[in-house]
Design a protein that fits this description.
Blueprint: H1 22-42, H2 44-66, H3 75-88, H4 94-102, E1 106-112, E2 124-133, E3 137-141, H5 142-145, E4 150-154, E5 160-169, E6 174-179, E7 202-207, E8 215-229, E9 236-243, E10 255-258, E11 263-271, E12 282-287, H6 288-294
Antiparallel strand pairs: 1-2, 1-4, 2-3, 3-6, 4-5, 5-6, 7-8, 7-10, 8-9, 9-12, 10-11, 11-12
């Protein structure tokens, strides 16, 4: 008898079990495979998301590892960079900035006074002015147009126009003109109160000295709240700005401009020891708040 297991219930040794047919084995494995596919499909999106996140994290970590550490910039580095820039590209002077800011607002003022206003050889006086309202309102010095039977102004683009005297303020030597014709792109100058000016501050005077111009001269404020009395005694002005930028006959009425191109005064007089009254280093300007008041502009 073959060896086998003994059954206590029957007292017999059971016969050996025959193996399952191949078809039945396949039938058992198929449900198992379907179960794994179903599980994969149910978890496919979360698995892909997790894999993508892991890849992104890996790439980010690699980027951080390869990126150099940021440089620590010191004040010395900044100073050296500024110095190199100034050596290769110097900044424009205050006079350049001032002139560029107001050049389109500067006008030549020509006063004809003998009644022969249409005669090109008639005696004329030449002065300067500045547009303060873009509809053609111009500030100038009263003594430039006093006694004129006709006033002509010339703008930067060469256009000329007659102008009317709309306001006279003898106590401050100011006159306000209104041009009859103006350029299409006429710009008014920017005005700035003179109350905050200090001695030594850069200023630029722009006008038509001896009829030549526009001419630019540069200097500093020499003093504030000065008084001036004309040699003949016809003018006694006070609260003036004293400056040392070159000014000559014909400069009167032109603007005195600060370093950023704002008009702070109107040139009115020069102090000279020569008989012709030419530049000697002391000029005077009416503060712009006084001048703007003559034009009816609101106070600063």
């Amino acid at each position: 008898m073959k060896k086998g297991f003994y059954s206590a219930a029957t007292g017999k040794t059971p016969a050996a079990r025959a193996p399952l047919p191949a078809a039945e084995t396949s039938a058992v494995a198929e449900p198992a495979r379907r179960t794994w596919r179903d599980r994969y499909k149910r978890h496919e999106k979360p698995l892909l998301f997790a894999a993508g996140a892991a890849l992104a994290a890996g790439l980010f970590a690699s980027h951080l590892a390869l990126t150099p550490a940021p440089l620590h910039i010191t004040q010395e580095d900044i100073d050296q960079a500024v110095a190199r820039t100034l050596e290769t590209k110097p900044l424009p002077s205050p006079a350049v900035k001032a002139y560029q800011a107001v050049r389109s607002s500067i006008v030549r003022v020509r006063a004809i006074g003998d009644g022969l206003e249409y005669d090109e050889y008639a005696p004329t006086a030449t002065g300067s002015g500045v547009v303060i309202v873009d509809r053609g309102v111009i500030l100038t010095s009263l003594h430039v147009v006093t006694g004129a039977s006709r006033v002509r102004v010339q703008f930067e683009d060469g256009m000329e126009s007659d102008a009317e005297i709309v306001t006279r303020q003898p106590e401050n030597d100011l006159a306000v003109l209104q041009a009859n014709r103006i350029p299409d792109d006429l710009k008014a100058a920017t005005l700035r109160s003179a109350r905050h000016l200090i001695e030594g501050e850069h200023v630029t005077a722009i006008g038509f000295p001896f009829g030549i111009g526009p001419s630019v001269s540069h200097g500093v404020i020499s003093g504030l709240k000065r008084e001036y009395r004309a040699p003949q005694g016809e003018r006694n002005l006070s609260n003036l700005i004293q400056f040392d930028a070159a000014a000559n006959p014909g400069s009167s009425g032109g603007p005195l401009v600060n370093a950023v191109g704002e008009v702070v005064g109107i040139v009115t007089a020069i102090l000279s020891t020569s008989e012709k009254g030419t530049f000697s280093g002391i000029g005077f300007a009416v503060p712009i708040e006084t001048a703007a008041g003559a034009a009816g502009l609101p106070p600063f």
